[in-house]
Design goal:
single chain, 473 residues, alpha/beta, Rossmann fold, TIM Barrel, 2 domains, eight-stranded parallel beta barrel, six-stranded mixed beta sheet, elongated, binds 6-sulfanyluridine-5'-phosphate
Amino acid sequence: MEYEIKLEELAIKLFTIDAVKFGDFMTKSGLKTPVYFDLRVIVSYPDVMELITFLLYNSVRDSKCNHLCGVPYTALPVATLLSVQAKRSMLMRRKEAKGYGTKKMIEGHYKAGESCLIIEDVVTSGSSVLETVKDLVKEGIKVDTAIIILDREQGGRQNLAANGVEMKSLFTMTNLIEILVKHNKITQEMANEVKEYLRTTKAPSSTEAVDRASISFEKRAELATNQVAKQLFEIIALKKTNLCISVDLTSTAKILDLLEKVGEHVCLVKTHVDIIEDFNSDFVIQIKQLSKRLNFLILEDRKYADIGNTVSLQYLNGLYKIGEWADCVTVHSLPGEGILKALNGSTNGVSRGVFLLAEMSSEGNLITPDYTKATVEMAAKYPDLITGFVCQNKDTFKDPGLIQLTPGVQLETSGDSLGQIYNTPEKVILDKGADIAVVGRGIVAAKSPETQAVVYKNALWKCYQKRISGKME
Ligand code: S5P
């Protein structure tokens, strides 16, 4: 109750000090608006600052975040007060990088893998919040919540949600207006005009977004929520290879022989266990030993696509008992969420990993943009299980803690006679946003697979380095 009373008190004060004004105004972008906010003035009113701090305090206290960061400049003093009161560390984002020394955008003491809560005054499109989020994420800091004084309800909430940031606000515009009408500060007529304006004027969907492709694999390891993804990022960074070999061979001896030669050059080995003619338990022991000795993970490309119950049987039972030896598996989203529910969990205390197929490389495949979008949305509900996506495009997903695995890679663009489409390492890493490139016949069918694996490894790594250095033409 005290909270409600103070919230109304704040609304009235904001009106009284002209932090919120009604009439005919022009926005920065030249649009007409019947309501205008300027919260920069609040610093001159200690009672308003105190009220805001009081109202935001509980959200800060209840958050598990290591740090707070105010979006420059208006929210900086608010963040400072909250930081002191909640005894929580504060970080500061620079508006411009220093011209000398380190190009640091974030000031304060922090470690990659820590988390940060964002504080902001007013959100319209959400792009200012996202600029701050982007710089924090680049440092390996996780951001999932932004605490806002006023949500203008013009699309900011949706833009933030699309970047994995939940917005909590003291007021929405609608609810602020209702309070002001109740206290006879504005007429019902004015309130209706503002509501109509809100209904018809939306901020453009924000172009500002976290660009996962510009973040190093080391930092992304800290942002991963799935243990397999974290491990894979770490292996990639350590071995300096983002090459996955697809060992589409039909005898265990040939697979083991190939892996003995190329294992040190790859981060991930992709198998199709059901094409092996002499599969046996000794093969499992040997490939696991190789994976330990040469430090790569194993992805069984089973492409599960059945109802949850069947998939859980297929995963743990039958001849292959895939769940016992594969670090991760590929899964279709087609049957719906049941398939992820069935796989969610761990085997013998070891986290599982799933690469969801969001797009395919083959010509004429039936996956539509809506299907891809729904697949990414489905994955967001299983942060502990999802390692990443098998997909072809950078825009398919944004979360820097997930991995883009892209097949259909050869040194020369072409295809095969059965609809496979190939792109070059440059194209998949620099244009298409792949984190790991899957190469099958490009290496397996080469005269010297070992030499060819090194060629692919170096080409892919060079592109990755170029990508994170930001020197793309
Ligand atoms: O969209 C896809 C998804 C996958 S997992 N396109 C693919 O080609 N794959 C797999 O990647 C395919 O099953 C095969 O094992 C590998 C590509 O092999 P390559 O010989 O064409 O490089």
